[in-house]
DNA sequence: CCTACCGATCGGTAGG
DNA sequence: CCTACCGATCGGTAGG
């Protein structure tokens, strides 16, 4: 029984929930309980609507996951390209690339948790495409490290091992970071950027 | 219709599946699809029995998860205490502690994936207890780093941040390590142990 | 170890 | 946006 105010003239005005709100609620719950641990009824409840009403804003539960993961990985790569555009110096690039990646995991914790926990629940071909995007990022980091080794700035036995370590320690920030904690996201990101350089044995 | 051989004399001999086999099948599937993404029927199918027969070897699906997580965290702490027992030197201790932790994540990938992905699916009080065990490990690593800072071996602004980074980069080995890959588990563990010292700015 | 079966809940559709 | 409803599957029990 909707309120009998002026808006009842336009039928479209009855819509109380947007697709963005559905995605946001799904993101929160997927991050909290995992994709398979979340029921559509819980997403609906959080929005104050009934389950079937969700289908006005999405095609399926799977599509929700796919949208969230694709958007997150797209943003990660955009961040990366922005971070390395300013300089050709591998030291500057690795610091900047690690900084934005670490920063994103502190400021977008839910997205990070879902991507890392539930990407494997995606159906093909999305699964393969998402894996390819992550690999693209990893290869780009590795290539920076290899250039750093070549020019003598870094000294690390295996660039692949180092790039995995750097990326994954950053990912884990999403597991423990708290906005109301003792350190800001920027402080953590700066510190992790230095960790990355140390892993590569950069003696600044 | 069991084979009509000699073993049919003893009724107990009909048992074809052990609790260990159930746990192992659950471990494989939980690691692959997550706890909520795995049905008991899939565990049974993998063992060649019917779903209700599983209940001869377990009390509930939840108990399977609880058993797996508790055993893994117990082993992690046992590893840790064994690794740091030989020396009081923070450098030696951090290297050894990281080495065994990294090694475990290369050799026990399934356990690591389940602990990291599905511990949050545990009911209380198991959830709190498992979190406490992980925190215990983290505090122990942090304490080694702090002692290293005090005696001048390490130079890192924040021991907590460093311990998180070291532990989580090691955890991630379970995500990418392959037994048939180019590096042995021991080689990876040794390399990560050096990464840990570098993060703490140990200038060996 | 099995068959037979349970209530609950799942994602999703029909139709308004 | 809703109610009414669907078949499928879930974890688990009864009883042998």
From TrEMBL, chains A, B:
SUPFAM superfamilies reported in the protein's UniProt record: Homeodomain-like, Tetracyclin repressor-like, C-terminal domain
Entry keyword Hydrolase: no
Gene3D superfamilies: Tetracycline Repressor, domain 2 (1.10.357.10)
Annotated DNA-binding residue span(s): 39-58
Domain of life: Bacteria
Domain HTH tetR-type span(s) in chain numbering: 16-76
Keywords carried by this UniProt record: DNA-binding
Keyword DNA-binding annotated: yes
Database matches in InterPro entries: Homeodomain-like_sf (IPR009057), HTH-type_TetR-like_transc_reg (IPR050109), HTH_TetR (IPR001647), KstR2_TetR_C (IPR041490), Tet_transcr_reg_TetR-rel_C_sf (IPR036271)
Record protein name field: TetR/AcrR family transcriptional regulator
